[in-house]
Write a structure and sequence with these properties.
Number of strands: 3
Mean pLDDT: 84
Strand order of the largest sheet: 1-3-2
Order of helices and strands: HHEHHEEH
Structural class: alpha+beta
Strand content: 5-15%
Low-confidence stretches: none
Helix content: 55-70%
Largest sheet: 3 strands, antiparallel
Oligomer: single chain
């Protein structure tokens, strides 16, 4: 699948990716550059699952990656940073409201 160019499709992809609790948690860790192994360890998920999810996010142009030696490091794509941060903040606010 080619990277998503249409802005409406990009918005839909962002919401689709962030609609799953595991993927949302993964995106919250990408406030900087992290390796697949770091993400998997922090979320207590398999490296294989994290790699698959991150590959889909790269495919959707939501995250970027760079290789260093044998590891790949991921970060939120700059053009989606603000939108993803907004969705994450909304999710956090909702979670706080549920607790109160």
């Amino acid at each position: 699948m080619a990277k998503i160019e249409n802005i409406e499709d990009q918005k839909t992809a962002i919401l689709e990716v962030l609609s799953h609790p595991g993927r949302l948690k993964m995106m919250t860790l990408l406030d900087g550059s992290r390796s697949v192994n770091q993400i998997a360890e922090l979320l207590d998920m398999s490296q294989s699952y994290c790699s698959q999810v991150l590959a889909k996010m790269v495919e959707y142009n939501l995250v970027t990656h760079r290789k260093h030696k044998l590891e790949a490091f991921y970060t939120i794509a700059p053009e989606h940073q603000k939108a993803i941060e907004t969705v994450i903040e909304i999710a956090r606010a909702y979670a706080r409201a549920e607790i109160d």
